[in-house]
Design goal:
The protein is α+β, with helices and mostly antiparallel strands and 182 residues long. Helices cover 40% and strands 22% of the residues. α2 packs parallel to α5.
């Protein structure tokens, strides 16, 4: 009888020990602060980052010109920028289509009438935001203080209403770190 109790007791102690040890050997990664996010290079070879847009609601959209869901999403982003740009929205398209895709970006912008900036993200920005899921398109909506509000992976026409609602709500929140956004 004692022998049969030793095995379950030993397993229970071993399991408890591993559980307690795991509490001290793992950490939850903290999300990157807006100032810690990488940046992107614009067509004029100027480097930009999210902190440069403080006071604006920003949509960082990762896309490629050859990506069909990205192409389906683009007219919606163009419309959002036109509709809400004067209210404080800034869409920024970040091309992750590879070196061969860069030459296609000007024609892509012309085809869709894109008036928002198109740029090329730094590797560290791609690593920070897309390391857990590299599917595109992906859009990240940030509030006026540079805090991530919502991440959208993929595109479907039903989701376009959801991103617009998130943007509308962020635009009506008129505070920038305690001051008026107007």
């Amino acid at each position: 009888m004692l022998r049969t109790l030793k095995l379950p007791l030993a397993l229970t102690i071993a399991t408890a020990t591993l559980l307690v040890a795991s509490l001290f050997t793992t950490c939850t990664r903290r999300p990157s602060q807006p100032s810690a996010l990488g940046g992107w290079v614009q067509d004029n070879n100027q480097h930009a980052k999210l902190a440069d847009y403080k006071g604006k609601v920003v949509v960082l959209d990762f896309y490629a010109t050859w990506c069909e869901p990205c192409r389906a999403e683009t007219p919606h982003l163009v419309n959002l920028q036109r509709q809400y740009g004067d209210k404080g929205l800034q869409v920024i398209g970040l091309n992750v289509g590879g070196d061969d895709d860069r030459a296609q970006v000007p024609a892509f912008a012309k085809e869709f009438g894109i008036e928002y900036p198109l740029a090329y993200p730094d590797d560290d920005l791609v690593d920070q935001l897309l390391s857990d899921n590299q599917n595109i398109p992906q859009s990240f909506v940030y509030d006026r203080n540079g805090k991530l509000i919502k991440r959208f992976i993929g595109f479907e026409s039903l989701g376009s209403a959801q991103i617009e609602r998130v943007i509308q709500q962020a635009l009506t929140t008129n505070t920038i770190a305690g001051q008026s956004a107007n």
